[in-house]
Design a protein that fits this description.
Layout lengths: L1 H15 L11 H9 L5 H10 L18 H11 L1 H18 L8 E8 L8 E11 L4 H67 L5 H36 L27 H5 L2 H23 L4 E10 L2 E9 L9 H66 L5 H36 L21
Antiparallel strand pairs: 1-2, 2-3, 3-4
Helix pairs in contact: 4-6, 5-6, 6-7, 6-9, 6-11, 9-10, 10-11
């Protein structure tokens, strides 16, 4: 009777402590409809920024009512980017693992009932025991440390991905802004060309120009229209990529991209500072991976030490009641977890080499990025200060001559082409300088980068449109 009243509560407690399964099927149609019609509100974005402890260059006052600037686009991408949402969701796996690490193994209940069929007076024999493991080896502490280290790696990967997402937004923003200005420039050139075509047509009608010469200007205009269509297609694609990075539906309206990311000032950067390299998100992730490798090795070494198995039991035989206690202690003689320890030690060494070489590569890449930024700024300056003024002067002279009725067809067409190519080339060079600045910011990391979302006030230290 006493055994029954002991086993029933024990089994009941074990069963009531178990979880039950609840299915959660995806509702794709509902999700897609909600995504198409959803744009984050100002309050939602402000709450999200406070929750993730936004950096200093994240806008303090949220409003999307007056259009979208670069800083708001970056923050919106941190909120809605699909890959970031997946990464944060996956971090819940390691968080759950860390929250439930270091638990004791469940006890094992054993029962044995025997009936002797040879006609004994008391044919029944009964034996029960409950065995559990005492973690005297200390492996549960190392298991907790390992799970925490694994979760830290995932969090650092998210931070690294967030920084990369911001850089991708800046690159796409620059591409979209450049295409917007190129489209505007091409349309302005088309208006100038139309004005010249009107002059050329009058000269042709007066018999002072052949039809074949006048036709060259119309051919030039048709080619421009075709090129303009290609530019508008590129602009549309850049805007769609920007929406995708921010997690917005393709039909969401975006304001024009006018501001450019301000490139860091190379002369003010601590390029030889060890701390500035270590603080980069990529190195922080690799440091966390090395720490996880350390914790793995510590855990595998701790696992070679045995835990103590304890199994108290009760026996009933021949109307005699017996209580016993069994002990089990594995002896680390043959295996001693040697393979896992050797693998963990090799993984730790590999993680250290990855960290060290990544630091070397990052330092070299920074130096190259500075050189590229200097080169891009110099090319933009030469085009802006030397080449374009000559092209504009040549165009003004050619147009005045044409207005007087003296048209050198090939010189005028070549001047027109040079004018368009020069203006489009300047836009390309400004965008190239901005992209070089983004590349340098990517290598510097958020802790070594100033507010890169504000547009420069002048062309000094960074180009503007």
């Amino acid at each position: 009777m006493s055994i029954r009243w002991f086993l029933i509560p024990l089994l009941s407690a074990a069963l009531t402590g178990c979880q039950t399964y609840q299915p959660s099927p995806p509702e794709l149609e509902r999700h897609y409809a909600a995504w198409l019609n959803s744009v984050p509100t100002n309050d939602t974005l402000a709450s999200f920024a406070a929750r993730i402890a936004a950096t200093a260059d994240t806008p303090a006052a949220w409003t999307l009512d007056d259009g979208l600037n670069l800083a708001e686009a970056e923050a919106l991408a941190l909120f809605g980017n699909a890959e970031l949402r997946v990464a944060r969701s996956r971090a819940g796996v390691t968080a759950a693992s860390a929250a439930h690490a270091g638990l004791w193994d469940d006890p094992v209940l054993a029962m044995d009932v025997t009936r002797i069929v040879s006609g004994m007076a008391n044919p029944w024999m009964f034996m029960t025991s409950i065995s559990f493991t005492l973690p005297v080896s200390g492996r549960l502490k190392t298991e907790i440390a390992l799970a925490d280290a694994g979760h830290a790696v995932e969090l650092h990967r998210i931070a690294e991905r967030e920084w990369e997402t911001r850089m991708m937004v800046r690159e796409t923003w620059v591409e979209r802004a450049a295409m917007e200005h190129q489209v505007e420039t091409a349309r302005a050139y088309q208006a100038e060309l139309d004005a010249l075509i009107a002059i050329v047509d009058r000269i042709e009608q007066a018999g002072e120009m052949t039809r074949t010469a006048a036709r060259l200007f119309h051919i030039e205009r048709m080619k421009l229209v075709n090129d303009l269509n290609a530019m508008e297609e590129s602009l549309t694609l850049a805007a769609l990529r920007l929406r995708q990075l921010m997690g917005l539906a393709p039909h969401v309206t975006l304001s024009p991209a006018r501001d450019l990311p301000k490139p860091p000032a190379p002369e003010s950067l601590p390029m030889d500072a060890t701390r500035s390299l270590i603080e980069h998100p990529t190195l922080q992730t690799l440091k966390a991976m090395h720490e996880a490798a350390e914790r793995t090795l510590a855990h595998e070494i701790r696992r070679q030490y045995p835990d103590l198995g304890v199994g108290p039991g009760y026996e009933y035989e021949d109307e005699e009641h017996r209580v016993r206690v069994g002990l089990m202690l594995p002896l680390p003689i043959f295996n001693r977890n040697q393979r896992a320890i050797a693998e963990a030690r090799a993984e730790r060494d590999a993680a250290r080499v990855m960290l060290e070489t990544a630091m070397e590569t990052l330092a070299s890449d920074r130096a190259q990025a500075i050189a590229r930024l200097h080169g891009a700024a110099e090319r933009r300056r030469v085009m802006e200060e030397r080449i374009l003024p000559l092209i504009d002067a040549q165009f003004d002279d050619a147009r005045r001559i044409a207005e007087l009725g003296e048209v050198d067809t090939f010189m005028l067409l070549e001047t027109l082409r040079q004018r368009l190519e020069g203006r489009l080339g300047l836009i390309d060079l400004i965008a190239a300088e901005a992209r070089a600045g983004v590349a340098l910011s990517r290598l510097l990391g958020p802790s070594n980068t100033d507010d890169n979302s504000a547009p420069p006030s002048t062309t000094e230290g960074g180009a503007s449109w």
